[in-house]
Structure formats: structure tokens, C-alpha cells
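Course assignment 3, question 2. Fill in each field.
Student: A.L.
Task: Predict the tertiary structure for the chain below.
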Amino acid sequence: MRRIHISMVRPGERLARPIMRENGSVLLGAGVELNERFIERLRGMGIDVVYVEDEWTSDIVPEEVIRDETYQRAFDTIYKTVGSLMDTPANRGRASTPDLGRTFRALFGEIIHDLLQRKDIMYSLAQIHVADAYLFQHSVNVAVLAGIMGMAKGYNRNQIEELGVGALLFDIGMTKVPKELLHKTTPLTPEERAIVEKHTTEGFDMLRTQHDISLLSAHCALQHHERYDGSGYPRGLKGNEIHEYAQIIAIADVYDALTSPRSYRNRYSPSEAIEYLFAAGNTLFDLELIKLFCRHVSVYPVATTVMLNTGQIAVVTANNPLAVHRPVVRILREADGRPVSTPYEIDLKYDMQLMIVKEL
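Answer field:
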């Protein structure tokens, strides 16, 4: 399979991975033949990339950092928990689930179990949801990234659990933000921004009253918008005044937000998001944490369609953990646009004359 931008999809091509609805159910299943109507519908739902079947890449299958079943269970749990708080005006903002902590500790335990099965963890998730599912999908992605970081830091089981529960619930304060602001496509007014920014303190207040959630987990909700140079909110904390859990979640939050499609901008590619993070080192984020984070992120995920500096079109077949910007690629088209008679692979780690110039 290969991952391509929706603008490159042609009628008659078949989906290689399903497209998920906001509630986690399947919108379009793998194997569905795409026609003009389907393609336009996907565009209208905020989907900008898809996985399609291709005879030359049929053996290329992105390896998820966690199993599809684990991801779907996490998505479903967050959807039901957070969705119930948002949908009912009387309940909005009330973390009334009596076993909230136990539920999310068990959920994160499944995520960690999957991560521990991987020898070399390079983060990349192939799940594709409609844009309206962003809030729920985002929490799962941030939790996975935080778990990878906690393991890389050498945290003990209790620390990883505190971090993971905090990551799954760090944005729970968003349940108190009016939906019209969450989906607004124009710039927020100062008054509207003040309402949105209150989600940090609202989330902290919701979590700290839960008897089975650590206060440090609750602080992830409070501090994830604080910044290393003191420019963040709600308290303008600096450097090590910000708990390390919250610093990790802040990096994961920004990375996933940048690489996700939003109603008001195009998504960043993983490589562009990493460039942004490095540029923010020791200003918005701790540079050492950024370096650790980026060692575990797949800059060019397997199945990504790319263009080389020669003009050749290729698909990423494997990542090099020690050279994340230099994956193995399979050439599908030559520089003059001709399809190759037989696809062949190049390991960019060893061919320094070649480089990826953009994703397609």
C-alpha cells in the first residue's frame, strides 16, 4: 500500500486502510473502490491523506506502534467518556465517572503492553479519522507518544502510569469549551481565546477531585500549555518549574496537532513538525527532551509517497532508527515521469547524493 494526498487519488483506486467516523466506526472500509463522489466526500470531511492499494507496493504495510484493537479501544473509551461530558449540558465539565482513574490506568496499561513488544519504537500511526474526530484521536496519539517518551526516560511503572493517565486526559477541560469555538475556522477574538485557555485550569479542577487520579496526572492538564521560556499559560511557569510530565505532553501535543489536518490550515508533514520543534528548543520546549522525542518519531512513515531531489517518485519501505531522515525507498517513477519497468529500492543512508524534498 502507499499513503498519498487526497489530491492525487484517482477514481478506480481502492482503499488499503479504512476511514473511521467520529465515533470510531468505519466510514469506508479497506478494499472500497473510490469514485469521484467518495473522493469529494472525503475532502469535505477534512480527510487529506489516504492509503491506497498498489501492485508495486502490495508488500508494504505500515507497522503500528500499538495494535489496531488497542487503538480502537482507547479511542472508544475517550469518545464515550469525553463525549458524554460534552453532549449533556447538565454534565458538561463534570468528571462524574466514579472509576475514571481505574478505567484510564487499565487503558494505558494496554498501550504500554503493546509498546513493550516493539524492539525499536519509531512512532507512526496509520489510523485515519474524519476531522471531527480530532479531539478523541489526538488524546490517544499524545498518550502513545508520552508512553514512548516515558520508556525512553527510564521511568518506573508508577511514573509511566501517572504520565499516561495524564496524557489520556490532559485535554478534558475542553469539554467546558463551547463547540462553536472548538470548530471555529476564523481567528479567535481575545475574549474567545480567554475562554479556550481556561481549559487548563478547568481540566485540573476536574481531575484533582477524582480520588483515583494522581495529583501529578492532574497537573498535566494544568501545565501542558506552559512554555520553557515562561510565555505559556495559565501561570507563566519557566524551565524546570514545569513538571517533566507536562513538558513531555506539551511536545507530544504540539507535534500531533501540527501533523493533523485542521479546519483552518493544512497539516504539517512529520519532517516539518520536527523542524518546528527543534527551532523551539530551549525557548518553547526543553531541547534535550526534543532530541529524545525526535529519536523515536518516524520522520517519513512507511508507505509515505515522496519525491527525491532527482525528481524520482518513491515510497518509503523502511526506516533507519539511527538515521531517521534517511529511510529506504522504493522507486516507482524515474525523473522524467516514466514508470519503472521493475521497482527497485535505495537505502538513502548510503546514497548521500539523494534526498527527499517533499511528501506527495
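Instructor remarks: The chain has a mean pLDDT of 89. The first helix runs from residue 36 to 44.
Grade: pending
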